[in-house]
Amino acid sequence: MATGLGGTRGRAGRPTSSEAAELSDRLRRAAVNAFLENGYEGTTMEAVAQAAGVTKGTLYARYPDKRSLFVAVSSWALTRMEPDTTETEPLPADLAASLMVIARAILARSVDPDIVRLSRMAIAESARFPEFALSSRAITWTPRIQVLIDLLRQHERAGTLAVSDVELAAEQFFAMVGAMPAWLAAYGIFRAADDEERHLRHAIRLFLNGMLARDDQERAAVALPSAGASHAPPRRVPAPARTLGPVEQVRLGNSGLCVSRLGLAAASAGEPDNGHRPSAQRGRGRDEHAAADVIRQFLDAGGNLIGTGADAATEEACGKVLAGRREEAVLLATAWMLPGSEPRYGGNSRRHLREACEASLRRLRTDHIDVFQVHADDPATPLEETIAALDDLVRAGKVLYTAASGLPAYRLMKALDISDRLGAARFISFQDRYDLSQRSVEREHFPLLADEGLGFISLNQPTATTAALPAAALELGCTPAQLTLAWQRTRPVTAMITSVRTPAELAESLTALTVDIPADIAGLLDGPPGPSPGTGSGPAWRGLLVGWDAADDRLEAAVEGSGQCHRDAQAVC
Known about the structure:
Elements: H1 17-42, H2 45-52, H3 56-62, H4 66-80, H5 95-110, H6 113-124, H7 130-134, H8 136-140, H9 143-157, H10 166-186, H11 193-211, E1 249-251, E2 258-260, E3 262-265, H12 288-300, E4 305-307, H13 312-321, E5 330-335, H14 350-364, E6 369-374, H15 383-395, E7 399-405, H16 409-422, E8 427-433, H17 445-452, E9 455-459, H18 469-476, H19 480-488, E10 495-498, H20 503-511, H21 519-525, H22 548-552, H23 555-562, H24 564-570
Parallel strand pairs: 3-4, 3-10, 4-5, 5-6, 6-7, 7-8, 8-9, 9-10
Antiparallel strand pairs: 1-2
Helix pairs in contact: 1-2, 1-4, 1-6, 2-3, 5-9, 5-10, 5-11, 9-10, 10-11, 10-18, 13-14, 14-15, 15-16, 18-19
């Protein structure tokens, strides 16, 4: 018996399998179109049934209410709304060419207008439909992902790739090529086709440089197929990713001391929670073996600058690990100003600086400290006393160089002026927190450090982020922490102190030294310099070279206002 679907009824008047499949497809498409056109609130079951050409009873037999209909067709539409030729057509034999075919298919779906509209609606209704959130993993595992997994496994068996987790690698590739375009499309931003092609090529190069077997590294800068034989758009060809070699060494300020661009915060090594605990509790629960492995791996990679931490346990651990390798390390020790301690146990007085230095020498099992720095400004102690005490330690051979951290710019300039007047050892570096979310040192300190020949050592807050950072990192195929370090390499930063707990986290930080930031991403990350505690349009310290005493009475307010971020970040070093 003929039917309206053009098929033949089965026994007992039931539709054939092909009729049932066609009906299901028609219902889904009608529902998706209705939700896209009218939104969830404006769509009715009656309207969907009418658009599909079926009775309400037929629709309700499959979907008991509008809620279940929305959840079902949303998941279906995001994964199988349109057939994908990459699921059936054979892929090229060349790995890079195959990845480009898959990447273009992912991109096409990511910016498809209907998919974008449906994604927006699903996000807007996520609180109403937790079922949709629970199905997100199923949505990720589209046939397209499975094609990619099969491709990677094929090349892994052939020895072309060296990857420990093929499924994870496939997910990461999917994110590298599709996540940023989808995110931009959700806000109505669509990049030009030529620009998207350039981004795809760059993502594939990054992916292959991380996955190719060691013997095939020279092929990492693969020649990707053009978008078409008659259309080869001009593009910036990304430079091949640099392989990880010994950590770069640079001079610290105008001194002759060479330090690694990447420094290590020893206080975080082996910690269960990245070292974010009060000093009195730090070291409890630390994995000593992991801490030792981190320090050894850092030295093996060519790093040498080690911040010895704010607690005795960290310095003692450093002393043990460095036995026999002391000459490879540049130890950065700090005379800490611990909150709530008695005056004789804190500050920058001669007594405290001498006692702190002696204690660090004993715990580190060494006869000298390479760089000894004051922790923060101490309004109660004359700067003349502090500078003279540090100079005494240098003349005694216990300290090679002196440095400062956390000082307002005008106080730092005053300390340098006192050193020049007394003929005492000058600071060679300044240390403070610096990342994309905390850039206050750019306004006054950076010009001062450049004029006076001091190096800058940055402290990185592991959780610091900005709105642009995660998306930019995703586009470059790196982590936000890696991008933060890579960004600092483009700034006037001599060395970057990184806080890592495990050898794996250290490897992640070391890899950041190979990340190059394209101009468009750099422009997105860069912005105006951070606010300064001072006022006026220029560096405030220039106007404070005369009349220091008049400025001193403002010190406590300045330290309270600008030093809290520094104290928080210093806790990890």
